Input
Amino acid sequence: MEKIIKAAVDRGASDLHIKAGDVFRARIDGKLVPLTKQRLTPDQTKAIAQRLISNDEDRGRIDKLRDYDCSWGMPGIGRFRVNILRQRSSFMIVMRVIPFDVPTFESLKLPAVLAEVANAERGMILVTGVTGSGKSSTMAAIINHINQSQHRHILTLENPIEFLHRDINCSVTQREIGVDTDDFRTGLRAALRQDPDVVLIGEMRDSETIDTAMKAAETGHLLVSTLHTPDAVTTVSRVVSMFPPEEQEIARLRLSEALHAVVSQRLLPRADGNGRAAALEVMICTDIARDMIKDGARTSELPDYIGDSREKYGMQTFDQHLIDLLTDGVVTYETALAASSDPKEFERQARSLRRRAAAAKPVAAAQAAEVKADDLSSMLPQ
Output
């Protein structure tokens, strides 16, 4: 098992799938590919599941487990977030690879404005996107930036703990759900009594957790968390909709005051075939953005405001970042077009980009010829 897992990690796998009746599979550059030819039996899969469970009590009741989360690591191989589930009455295991090195904004090639976002004194920073879009890595980079540049107490609530943060300039307390505290709600309520400056919540799943998170932001804490939403507008709507109808108006008002930024991201295959690149939408809550969040009828205006605020505040829409990635040759035109929020407008901008590039070629060629002629004349005898 260790050899197969190591081979997958060496090939850059992000996830491993181990299922009774199937071969080992790994997600590499977004695609699920087979690693072995021999199919696993139910007993083999159960034995692997038992090996991955570190808690003796849970290991002893494996036949009663239906959905189970834990973490597993081995020197020389890596650390993993593990989910053990039942399907067709037998076990399946999904392992998410957690790199040993804590990511940075530079290593993830994220926009420079995220450093400004991370420097906030208080408020909510929501990192959003579908499953597997790199949210955990971006949150870890935010925590790493704070840890490197400030002197604060950072407290994380995770299920399970993923990236391990050392105490650098900050004191970092990492609590695992089910091991160090019962659940996110209990851990978050307790966190507010533990003198934190920054609180990271692995995921906000219900209105009570979101309510406590907003209270944390309202009382002067910086709170970082995730939601499975594709963009800023949907994020605002999702948070508000998690409250009962009679509480939604006040929830919208509180959110407009507590929110500091929404960072939404998608992972796209790179043009050179080596891994994936992150495309980000970044919204920073200025007074105008807060007014748009506060007024449900104006929330749909946020994308246009984000696009218009790029130069002044460093915000960006997905399509603006896609144009940047396309210009730099990071992704192909087909990939960028498929990921764009407004394909027709993106196509128009891409055509304009191509025309400017074509117009610049003759000028560049003429300048190169002129330089070459000057070089040649300097070499000739006078």
Remarks:
- The longest strand covers residues 259-269.
- The CA atoms of residues 130 and 331 lie 20 Å apart.
- The two ends are 75 Å apart (CA to CA).
